[in-house]
Amino acid sequence: xxxxxxxxxxxxxxxxxxxxxxxxxxxxxxxxxxxxxxxxxxxxxxxxxxxxxxxxxxxxxxxxxxxxxxxxxxxxxxxxxxxxxxxxxxxxxxxxxxxxxxxxxxxxxxxxxxxxxxxxxxxxxxxxxxxxxxxxxxxxxxxxxxxxxxxxxxxxxxxxxxxxxxxxxxxxxxxxxxxxxxxxxxxxxxxxxxxxxxxxxxxxxxxxxxxxxxxxxxxxxxxxxxxxxxxxxxxxxxxxxxxxxx
Length: 246
Fold this sequence. Notes:
The protein is an alpha/beta fold. Helices cover 44% and strands 16% of the residues. The chain has one domain.
């Protein structure tokens, strides 16, 4: 089975480079709605090929755009979330150069931020605010790094300035992600000195991974500073994660 998954993965990536990338590039430049179907359809295919079954609970708020705030377990969070909704993500700048992941990130219009560069935060927040003004839903992982998914790391408040600078109606939408084998949590993270291809191969060999995604109630942001918003969102994401683990 993992060999079939590996063959399907290579075939899907090759087909994407030949057919989807040119269409998606034109669609994004011209604002065609088909870009959203391409994104969600391709990410659903990737989840199937790798062996991840996405199980959502709840939904994003009806009012758009949505500022989605989630815990971060692995790079697979991106394809899992994007298989449900057409989303724009915030990622560290080095992701753009990663094999496979960089391609997926660029295909989805990811906003890249230099790691540890505080002077670039205002520019990044301006770009994020521009995404919201364009009517697109945005995802940030305010932990600033991935984790084993056992608990939620402290949320950094820096990019909550983007939602406060937005001058229209928007919703802060908390989301919690948990990976299980159907019963118990499993570690699908890529971290430390792991190289990507062996990590991807281990995922394919494992197969049968369930990615549970819970969406919480929208959080009002009027009258709150970025630290208060980060703390309130973190508390709700942590509560959802603990409920899923329970």
